[in-house]
Amino acid sequence: MKVNSKKLLAAVKKLAGVINNPSVPILANVRIEVSDNKATLTGTNLSQSAKVYVDVDGGDNIDTTINFKRISAILSQLPNDVLSMVVKDDSATIKCGKSKFKLSCIDSAEWPKDEFEGEPITLDIDLDLFRNHINQVFYSVSRDESRPVLNGVMIEIENGNFRTVATDGKRLSVSSIHGVHQDNINAKIICPVSILMDICRNASDSIFIKIYESKMCVKSGDYEVVTKLIEGNYPNYKQIIPKDFSDSITIDRRLFLESIQRVSLILDESQNAIQLIFEDNKLTLTAQTQDSAQESFNIDFDGAVDFNFNPLLLIDMLKNVRSDEVVLNYNDRISPTLISSDNLRYIVMPMRW
Q1: Are 313 and 230 in a shared domain?
Q2: SS3 label, residue 63
Q3: Both 253 and 329 in a single domain?
Q4: Cα–Cα distance, 277 to 283 (Å, whole number)
Q5: What are phi and psi of 112, to 5 degrees?
Q6: Residue 157, exposed/middle/buried by CB under 10 A (0-12, 13-18, 19+)?
Q7: CA–CA separation, 317 vs 263, rounded Å?
Q8: Rounded to the nearest 10 degrees, how much is the dihedral formed by the CA atoms of 138, 144, 149, 154?
Q9: What is the CATH number of the domain that holds 311?
Q10: Which pTM was predicted?
């Protein structure tokens, strides 16, 4: 086959997130299939697989596997020129410009196959909408592997609503929108966060989703992924969200974020909290260690209340929403607070000082 080297490099890079099992030789490889002027590149770690389709100038049909790290390193150093690949027996010869490489291959007959059970639930969703709903919750996913169900994003499709949910026990993120699919489609799955972030990075067109009994398949343009779903029952997040609040405060998101980031610069391992003081139409942020920091800006709030928060929990949320303002809803200084922004609801616990 013949193809532009940078075009092939871009395609290979999209497989990086799923090729992470070097203990099994063939799983450290990328599968390359060429037929009818189309190349299909595939990577897998058995739990997830990804495919990228690339238009090429034909030649002989190819079906082989080549070490992913080796071909990635070679492609990254080649000039922006036409690359040719010829596969014979157990090796592939690659030529580009003045460079020539001969790489060993593993027979693709050993390549694992994706198998699906039952009839899928299918839906389409706009790419920007999908990215927005994943980006608004992914940071709340737990890194504690002792509770696998919290290591993924729960995707809930219910009565015309598309909802993403994530929690690590310290905070809860819920992003939802109505009317992206038919009202008669209902599903609830837990998807590994890593593959969702791969989709957000690599997708280029509308998202077409198929949900099977234990797997999810996502297609977007020339990119396709299959992932095993996380088994188990997700916590009833609706019980965590208070039904009513006694008051709310509207805050400029950018000012809030930048002030938190600056005040937090003096914090260390012994002190990881900042104080938010709302009083006399002003928000004052303070931090105290052996050093101190303080910053204030005007808001429209004539009450008086203060909270102590882990600043990282606020920064994560504020960095990943698009709105100009956020609304802090509360009952008192120690009960769960709800920070809302467009389609996002973010529950976070204040700290006791």
Answers
A1: no
A2: strand
A3: yes
A4: 6
A5: -70, 150
A6: buried
A7: 17
A8: -10
A9: 3.10.150.10
A10: 0.91
Question: How far apart are the C-alpha atoms of 243 and 173, rounded to whole Å?
Answer: 16
The two three-digit tokens of residue 5, written as one number? 């080297």
- Identity of the amino acid at 58: G
| Overall residue count recorded for the chain in this entry | 353
- Count of CA atoms in the C-beta half-sphere (13 A) of 302: 0
The string of pLDDT tens digits covering residues 189-225 is 999 999 999 999 999 999 999 999 999 999 999 999 9
Phi/psi region, residue 169 (left: phi>0; alpha: psi -120 to 50; beta: rest), is left
- 255 and 151 assigned to the same domain: no
Average pLDDT over residues 65-75: 97
Within 8 A by CB and 6+ apart from 8, the residues are 39, 54, 75, 83
Alpha-helical (H) ranges within the chain are 5-13, 68-77, 127-135, 193-202, 253-263, 311-319
Domain range for residue 193? 121-239
Phi-psi category of residue 160: left, alpha or beta, with phi > 0 → left and psi -120 to 50 → alpha = left
DSSP state letters, 166-193: EE-SSEEEEEEEE-SS-TT--EEEEEEH
Domain boundary among 80, 110, 140: 110
Q: 4-13, 20-29, 86-95, 102-111 — which is least confidently predicted?
A: 20-29
132 contacts: CB under 8 Å, gap ≥ 6: 175, 322, 343
